[in-house]
Fold this protein.
Amino acid sequence: MGNSLLKCLGGDCIDAEPQVVVVQVPVRDGVAALAQDLFTFEITSQVPQGLDQRVALSKKVLAIWYKQLLEAWKESKPTPKTQKAAASLIIQTLSRYNREEVERLLNYYDLPIPSSHEIPCAPSSSVSLPEGVQFVLFTLPVNAKDVGDGDGITAYVDTADPRESADVPAGVHEAVFQRIEARAARNFREADRLKKRISDAGYVFKNTGNGEEILARKYRIRLRGVDAPESQMPYGKEAKEELAKLVQGKCLRIDVYNIDQFGRHVGDIYCDGVFVQEKLLKRGFAWHFAKHDKRPEFAKWQQQARAEGRGLWALSNPEKPWEWRKSNPGWRQGNPPIEVY
């Protein structure tokens, strides 16, 4: 280009070919950006500003994502250095969540999106996940004692499930191996101490029935859109028994919509193709919790049970559970109001 410029200055630029200047635009380093955002999250507990506009999730759920990603990043050896490795870490860590949202996060960091058969995430919402579902749990068989009342259960998910395994903290893995060693050495006091440490982290050992144990994660579940009578109310005991009949001994699919302020996973429960909330409403063992759920079919199912006098609708004037709780503030010592979620 310098020679061409001199020719033009000398009046000889007729045959000079045009010069093309190529401007190099720097490509965003998604790996470095992810690492920096995780470092910032560790210090501030804040997700990247504006990310909630790119990924259709609340900041609360995104904070859960970044907490899990931070743990996975620290545990990875070596830490991701390439775009493909960083994308793999995100996919494996968030495998339980809606695939479309995970892909949006990959796009946010300009990381490659693998082909669909390489992504072990939950199915696309356009295929099987209703709108608003954040992730799906597939549980171990439910025990009757895990049914707390007519609208809440405790569920357990096998950590061998690839959707769950990536989230097990390194400290829990370490305690599990130490417990195995302690039991082999017949140091049962140490084994019990480690078992409590594992339990405090939200994990338990479940017997398989053949003398073996599996590690499972414990989830507190609140049935979305319904409110059953409390145990002290008429039909409270019957509501709990009805829920137990529906889920006892069965593996459940739970579509989780959100996590409430008390740490419970609020969702729809299915077992053997049966929608549990539908059965409870149609049989008159729960109210439609219209304050928090506007699904018209719920109102329809409640009206159907009421017209037929089923369950609690056999009463001439059944009291609403949320109103009963307000009138009985000491109904369960230390228990927060459950209708706020």
